[in-house]
C-alpha cells in the first residue's frame, strides 16, 4: 500500500476553514499609478494603512522594463543608448605608430627595472 504525505484521504491539500478574508484578498488597499518615459501606465496596489514614505516613488515597469515614476507629467527619462561603433570608428581611435612604440618602450623599461630589482 502506497501512502504519501500527511494529508487525510479525500481532502484537498490547502483546503480548510479559512475563507478569502483570511487570505487577505479583501484587505483594504490603495491603487498607485506609475508611468514610464513612453507614457505606459501600470497600477500597483498597497495596503491602505501603509505610510506614504514606504510606497516607492519609482519602480521598473513590468512590461517595458523601463523605470517608472508616480509623476505623470515628469516620468523618469529613457536610458540613452550609445550608438553602435563600427570597426572603422575603433580604427580611427587607435594611437599613431609613434605613440604605440613609445608605450611599448615604456612598458619594457618598467619590466626590465622590476626584473633587475627582483
UniProtKB/TrEMBL annotation:
The organism sits in which domain of life? Bacteria
Where in this protein does the record put region Disordered? 1-23, 54-78
Provide the alphabetized UniProt keywords: Transcription, Transcription regulation
Which regions are flagged for Basic and acidic residues bias?
A: 58-78
Question: What does this chain do?
Answer: Binds to RNA polymerase (RNAP), stimulating transcription from principal, but not alternative sigma factor promoters.
HAMAP family, per the entry: RbpA
Subunit structure of this chain's protein: Forms a complex with the RNAP catalytic core and with free principal sigma factors.
Q: Which family does it belong to?
A: Belongs to the RNA polymerase-binding protein RbpA family.
- The protein's name is RNA polymerase-binding protein RbpA
- The organism encoding this protein is Microbacterium istanbulense
Amino acid at each position: 500500500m502506497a501512502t504519501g504525505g500527511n494529508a487525510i484521504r479525500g481532502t484537498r491539500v490547502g483546503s480548510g476553514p479559512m475563507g478569502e478574508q483570511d487570505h487577505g484578498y479583501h484587505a483594504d488597499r490603495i491603487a498607485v499609478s506609475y508611468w514610464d518615459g513612453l507614457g505606459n501606465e501600470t497600477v500597483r496596489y498597497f495596503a491602505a494603512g501603509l505610510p506614504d514614505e514606504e510606497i516607492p516613488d519609482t519602480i521598473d515597469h513590468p512590461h517595458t522594463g523601463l523605470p517608472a515614476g508616480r509623476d505623470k507629467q515628469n516620468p523618469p527619462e529613457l536610458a540613452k543608448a550609445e550608438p553602435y561603433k563600427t570597426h572603422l570608428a575603433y580604427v580611427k581611435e587607435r594611437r599613431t605608430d609613434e605613440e604605440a612604440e613609445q608605450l611599448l618602450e615604456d612598458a619594457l623599461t618598467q619590466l626590465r627595472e622590476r626584473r633587475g630589482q627582483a
